Amino acid sequence: MCGIVGYVGPRQATPILLEGLQRLEYRGYDSAGVAVQNGHGLGVVKLAGRVAGLRHRLEAEPLPGTSGIAHTRWATHGAPTERNAHPHLDCHGRVALVHNGIIENAGALRAALARAGHQFVTDTDTETLVHLIEDAPGATLEARVNAALDHVEGTYGLAVISADEPGKLVAARRGSPVLLGIGEDEFFVASDASAVLAHTRSVVYLTDGDIAVLTPSAYHVIDRASHVQPRAVDELAWDLEGIELGGYPHFMLKEICGQPETVRSTMRGRLLFDEGSARLNGLNLTPGAAAAIKRIVIVACGTSWHAGLVGRHAIEQLAQIPVEVEQASEYRYRPKLQGPDAVTIAISQSGETADTLEAMRAAKRAGSRVLGVVNVVGSSIAREADGGIYLHAGPEIGVASTKAFTSQVVALVMLALHLGRQRGLPVETGRALVCRLAQLPGLVARTLALEPQVKALAQRYGSAGNFLYLGRGVSHAVALEGALKLKEISYIHAEGYAAAEMKHGPIALVDEHLPIVFVAPKDEVYQKVLSNLAEVHARGGDITAVTTEGDDELGALVQHRLSVPATTSLLSPVLTVIPLQLLAYHIAVARGCDVDRPRNLAKSVTVE
Ligand code: AGP
Predict the structure, then answer these.
(1) Helix (H) or strand (E) holding 563
(2) Which of 277, 446, 458, 606 could form a disulfide with 587 if both were Cys (CB 3.0 to 4.6 A apart)?
(3) Beta partners for 497?
(4) String of DSSP letters for 260-327
């Protein structure tokens, strides 16, 4: 999941491409590179490492020219070296290409092209594309790109320029996101909107099979049969402020601290106090269809999957519909034992996660109605679902997802309420929950006040080698999420586990050197959790408990407690997760980790 950017227009391309890459760096940061048409050929500068390094290199080796392409990489095929960095050139250096995706038949293509005399200089799958274009028939670059793509299996979002057609840029999409930025006498190509927002709010989302041709004076989109395709121009809802640090040291901390507002934004205009329900018009689900649902299958990955686990509790409790929560990467290769009687919900912050997208497509092919719970407007999952819920949490830049999780939980509880009220849930129950939802932003703000306490704990546990997070019911999902956050950004091995499962094995790990975090709000399983806590305490466990303000039953069982305000159990994850987000953040900062760009990760996983 790399980031690609392209520009054609009257201005110098390099500064625009660099700024776009900087905004896309959360998509991958193994290497970066630029290629610019300079009137007598192509100038290319690339290196292993960050965009900042490329900016520095370009100060020494400027690349003049008013059209170009650029790339920031998350390595899949070929080590993250300068040699494997994009853009890639053909044998004569006349065509340059950047690519996001995986060419699955690269091995066979490479062998055939090498037999035909092409010289390969990288270990990447992508390089086969530029040699295919070099070989392809056609009078124009777009015709050659189109012909070359006939041979390609796999996914791509790509941009290409040629020294022989100055001022022209060709982009193509299959499986990886590509949008066009429509400016005044200038046009942009990018993997997502954050790269063009500083220049325009008007964007065109390409769909699979599209090829776009951009010149300084115009752009058009054709399909693989070279027929011109009309494409809508959408207006972006968010602003630059949303993708700026705004005085915070890291996007992750900004996004954690912004949760009172993002949770409020997810609920805005959706809470119906009198009806005791939630208005979710985007679902496109008639009351009859809602009442007829027999089964729900949730598909998601990572943090979104954890939110799905909370969603299951809410939907089963409020709407009495059986729910399965599936890891999309596993689910997509299992037989689809569901049809029109089941609704499939794809949860994804980015809306571009390949496994979740493909799992949703597979469910759709099996006849299931598919809904998306998505943050990024205009993303593939949002556009391909039959209906859905936008989180309206604003752009999430930090690779470690935080505000998306709390907004996903709120959205799923509102969905459960919406379905429940159409399936006999009493209005009083609905009204009580709506009141609890409305109180959340204030409770989130109060919970954030725990930061100094959490920071002190982070100092204490920053050098730990392992961590264990435990919880039951909805708090099991929070334990999994807390462990994932710590793993992702501090590189400490951490495990989330169902508290009652401890005695079936993992309790063997307990000793005074293993920090253990219990997620133990006062809910219907609290007494059970207390027994699990006592079992761990009895073996000398070093316990930190996230519990409810005023809890006086923990006593000496725990070394540290982080008390969050009381709320109903289905909403408790929105509060109990916050000290865990902060703990991971402050431990990572204390260990000198790059919090927003954790190693080996990327924000949106658009490859399998
Ligand atoms: C979470 O912090 C990670 N970035 C990752 O697990 C993420 O949740 C997962 O890749 C799913 O992403 P999505 O919500 O955009 O589909």
Answers:
(1) strand 560-564
(2) 458
(3) 470
(4) HHHHHHHHTTTEETTTTEE--GGG---HHHHHH--EEEEEE-HHHHHHHHHHHHHHHHHH---EEEEE
* Rounded alpha-carbon distances, angstroms, from residue 403 to 311, 523, 549: 16, 23, 23
- What tens digit of pLDDT does each residue of 544-566 get? 999 999 988 888 899 999 999 99
Residue 348 CA, ligand 1 centroid: distance in Å = 7
Residue 307 CB less than 6 A away from ligand 1 = no
Q: In terms of Cα–Cα distance, which of 456, 422, 445, 398 is closest to 593?
A: 398
If you take atom 9 of ligand 1, which residue's CA is the nearest one? 302
Q: What is the DSSP letter of 522?
A: S
Please give the pLDDT value at position 243: 81
Beta bridge partners of 543: 516
Mean pLDDT across the stretch 371-383?
Answer: 95
> Ligand 1 in contact with 67 (CB < 6 A)?
no
User: Active-site positions?
Assistant: 2, 603
Instruction: State the distance between the two ends of the chain, measured CA to CA, in whole angstroms.
Output: 10
Gap from CA of 301 to ligand 1 centroid (Å): 6
* Cα-only R_g, the chain: 25
CA angle 277, 282, 287 (to 5 degrees): 55
pLDDT per residue as tens digits for the range 469-506: 999 999 999 999 999 999 999 999 999 999 999 999 99
pTM of the predicted model, to two decimals? Answer: 0.90
Q: Which of 82, 65, 70, 84 is nearest to 25 (CA)?
A: 70
Q: Which of 460, 522, 464, 526 shows the shortest CA–CA distance to 499?
A: 526
Tokens 């209906």 correspond to 387
Q: Rounded to an integer, what distance in angstroms lies between the CA atom of residue 604 and that of residue 608?
A: 11
pLDDT over 70, % of the chain: 100
β-strand partners of 88 = 97
Integer Cα distance of 550 and 565 in angstroms: 9
Measured in degrees and rounded to the nearest 5, phi and psi for residue 274 equal -65, -45
DSSP string, 337-368: ---TTEEEEEEESSS--HHHHHHHHHHHHTT-
SS3 428: helix
Q: For the chain, count helices (H), then strands (E).
A: 18, 26
DSSP collapsed to 3 states, 467-521: EEEEECCHHHHHHHHHHHHHHHHHCCEEEEEEHHHHHHCHHHHCCCCCEEEEEEC
Ligand 1, atom 16, residue with closest C-alpha: 348
Q: State the angle between helix axes of 141-149 and 127-135 in degrees (0 to 180), rounded to the nearest 10.
A: 120
**CA 33, chain centre distance (Å):** 23
